[in-house]
Amino acid sequence: MRLIFSVLLLTITLGSCIPVKKYNDLLAKEQNCADELKKFKTSSLDYEAQLKTIQARAELMQRDVVKLKADTSALGNSYRALQAKYQQAISMGASFEEQLDKIKDSDAKQLARMRADLEAKIIETQRKEDALMAAEKALKNKQILLAEREQRVAELEEIISRQEAAVKALETKISQALRGFENKGLKVEERNGKIYVSLEAKLLFASGSTKVEAEGKKAIIQLAKAIEGESDLEIIVEGHTDTDALSSATHPKNNWELSVLRSTSVVSIMTENSTINPEILSASGRSAFHPVDVNDKSKNRRIEVIIAPRLDALFELISK
């Protein structure tokens, strides 16, 4: 405003001394200056508004910059932390790889050991299976053999049972046949599957004699008659003496001869007075070496007729 007033004052002052044309030029210039001033004012206001806008934007941008710096710093810290973790992860990965290689190597060795152990176990299992099959085969063979043996045992038992029954029946038959001589020095008994007919010497012989007396001959004939129909027998006639020494220049010269000659005399009577098969008879002498009573010599002087079933069938079965 001061500038305009000064221009007007100057214009008035000069108006009195300058021409009109110049005055008009001055007015035109003044108008131009006013227009330009108006433009400048308008521009100044626009610039001030723009400046405020820019300042506002600048403040926003400054705040964004501060925030960005903070975020950048946080990101940097986070990056560095991640970088450290990454390096740590790389280091751990390398360590894991090394451990994995060791484990793989160890596993390979262990796998080789396990494979070797497995192969050994397979071989051992096969060996045991072969042994088991062999054992099963042997067991089957033994079972077959056992069955055969059980069958033979059953047959043996049957034969033994039949023989025992036959011996028992024969003992009864002989006992009944010789019942009249029971109190005359004759005894019949069964021992170990054999029949023993014991005849004391007083029933058969005179002292030192080998000739059978009449009463004794009856007993021997009845015994022979009782068994003459039996063919599956073995009969041993044994002569026994006492311990009194016998010495003679003629026969019998000693107890051995006496025991044998007495047994042969009994055998002769049995074969001459029955149809008994001579093949099942044998005569022997035992002298004084098998006494039955050391305190009674008379009991030791005896003839024992031992009747046993023939065991041919039994031995044949056993030999199989």
From TrEMBL:
* The keyword Cell membrane is annotated on this UniProt entry: no
What protein am I looking at?
Answer: OmpA-like domain-containing protein
Q: Which residues form a coiled coil?
A: 108-173
Q: Which residues form the OmpA-like domain?
A: 192-311
Query: Gene3D superfamilies, from UniProt?
Result: OmpA-like domain
> Record's Gene Ontology CC terms?
membrane
Provide the species name.
Brumimicrobium glaciale
Keywords, alphabetical = Coiled coil, Membrane
